[in-house]
Each structure stands twice: as C-alpha cells, then as structure tokens.
Specification:
Elements lengths: L1 H54 L4 H6 E7 L2 E4 H14 L4 E10 L2 E11 L13 E13 L2 E9 L1 H7 L12
Parallel strand pairs: 1-6
Antiparallel strand pairs: 1-2, 3-4, 4-5, 5-6
Length: about 180
Amino acid sequence: MIEGKVVLILFGIALLICLEGSQSITVAQSQKLPGQIQLERNKSLVRRWIEEGFNKGDMKVVDKIFLETLTINGHPISRDNLKQGMQYRFAAFPDLHVTVEEIIGEGDKVGIWYTAEGTQRGEFEGISATGKRVTWFGFDLLQIKGGKISAGRFIDDSLGLMRQLGATLSTPPARQ
C-alpha cells in the first residue's frame, strides 16, 4: 500500500513539473507571437503587391503599400517610377502572371522566389512583339517599414528571358 502511495505522489510531482514546463513553453511562445504576427503581415503585404499589382494589374495598390520614395537596388525612386516599370512589363506582356513559389521572412525583410510568364505582345527591351509565350524566374528581397514597403532588391533571369524572345549575344568589337 505504501508503495502505491509513493508511486502516486511521484506521479503527481512529475505531472506538476510537466504542467509547469508546458506553461513555460506557452509563455515563451506567446512572447514570440507579436514578432510572428508582424512577419505574417509583412508577407501578406508582399503577396498583395504580387496578386493585386501584377496579377490583377491594379496600380492603385502601389500607392497603398509602398512608401512615396523607396530604394530599389540601391537607387531612390518614386512610387510613380515603380508603376511605370510595372506598366512597361504589362505593355510587353499583357497576360503577365506571377506565381510566388516560396516566401520567407525575417525581421523587417521578406523574400520571394517567383516565376513569371506571359506572351510578348508589345516591344520589350528593343525586341518587337514576337507572340512568344515566355517564362522567367526571379527573387525579390523587400524591406518593410511602418507597414509599407520601403526598399527592394530585385534579380531575375533577364538573360533567359531575352533568349526566349530571340535575342542573341555577340562579342564586343575588337579594340584597336
């Protein structure tokens, strides 16, 4: 009988330790929660730019989610400059569609790996409309401050895109 009581007491102590430990885990998780919520908001902001801005062609979203002046690849530009760049792509590829393949975030930065596709119906980088359906990929690293996108670093497979449109590389002329 005494052995049974000892086992029950030990089980009770172990249960209390476990419950206290789970409370500590819950407290630790709740302390991380505000940062996680902000990170999800930042990711949502970037997804909104892609979905509304590129896939629906809504330029108004740029005014809502970007700072008036932002930095792109180290150069300050205005939101209007950003919209002009997007409209240039739409003129060349009216059916442009961007798919976010992966999205990651840390602190105030969000990165997206994407695939873009469209049919060239207008001039692009000096190449007249080809009617070709093309696909390219890229990575954007965006910084968010005060709930708006403040900076971006963009890289994409421009060479692969240009090759699909029929561009070729040539060697530079020999120096004399």
